[in-house]
Every structure is written in structure tokens, then in C-alpha cells.
Specification:
The protein has one domain. Helix content is 76%, strand content 7%. The protein has 6 helices and 2 strands, in the order H-H-E-H-H-H-E-H. The protein has a two-stranded antiparallel ribbon with strand order 1-2. The longest helix has 33 residues. The mean pLDDT is 89.
Length: 148
């Protein structure tokens, strides 16, 4: 995955991550925008080096009982406020992904753009982790469901 990440960073990732870092900085100025800034930093991480990464909800990563209800409700409210911007960005990323799918060599790029479109529509509570971390979280959650 390292070679794909380097190629991605050179052609796409550096400028997309820079834009997201700029937006994160703008949102970090306000207290209300700070959670969105943290999520946009996660998105910048995905934008820079997407291969070998997974997008997972915080409740899936930590377990829903380990994420406070205030945090979840606040995330829902901010995601609702973000939704008009998120839907536009999501459509752009998904359409870009579809265009990339047209060429065989563009299929990995298309997959990345569709994953980015899925993330950006509701970024609060989404985390970018390695595939190993996502798998480990899924196993732990499955085991805790069987025990509980």
C-alpha cells in the first residue's frame, strides 16, 4: 500500500489534504466548529494517504457504551448542520469516483473517492484507522455482543 499512497499523495493527496487542513483551521476558530475541525483533520489524513485505511464510526471503534450520549447527540446535531455542505461534497466525490471507474487503471482511485464521499457526508464521529485497527474493533465488538 505504501507505493499507492506515495503516488496518490503526489498527484491528489497533498492538495486535498491542504484544503481540508485550511477548512479545519477555519472551523477551529469557533467553539461550535471545533468538533467539525477535528473531523476534518481525520478527513485530511484520509485525503493524504487513503490506501490501507478504513473509515469507522467512533461507536464501532470504542463500543457504543464507551461513547457518551452527550457526545453522540452533539455529533448528530453538528452532522445535521453540516449536511447541506456534506451532501454537495459527497456528490462531488462520488461523481469523481464514478468517472475514475471508467478507466481500469482508475478503479483504485474511484474506490478512494467513493470512500471519501461516504465520510464527508457525516464527518462527526468518523475516525480514520488502519485496516488492522478496524478489524480488531469489529472482533472486539462482536465478542462483547456475545458476552452481553
Amino acid at each position: 500500500m505504501g507505493v499507492f499512497n506515495i503516488i496518490w499523495f503526489i498527484f491528489f493527496g497533498w492538495w486535498q489534504a491542504a484544503i481540508m487542513l485550511l477548512f479545519a483551521g477555519v472551523f477551529a476558530i469557533t467553539i461550535i466548529g471545533f468538533p467539525l475541525a477535528k473531523s476534518l483533520l481525520q478527513f485530511a489524513k484520509l485525503s493524504a494517504f487513503p490506501f490501507g485505511k478504513e473509515v469507522i464510526r467512533e461507536t464501532e471503534l470504542k463500543g457504543s457504551e464507551n461513547v457518551s450520549s452527550i457526545r453522540r447527540i452533539g455529533g448528530i446535531i453538528i452532522n445535521i448542520l453540516w449536511f447541506p455542505i456534506g451532501i454537495i461534497l459527497s456528490i462531488i466525490y462520488i461523481l469523481t469516483g464514478i468517472l475514475a471507474f471508467i478507466t481500469i487503471i482508475g478503479i483504485p482511485i474511484g474506490i478512494v473517492y467513493v470512500r471519501m464521499g461516504k465520510f464527508i457526508i457525516t464527518p462527526i464521529g468518523a475516525k480514520v484507522v488502519t485496516k488492522k485497527e478496524a478489524y480488531a474493533a469489529a472482533v472486539v465488538n462482536e465478542l462483547s455482543k456475545k458476552e452481553g
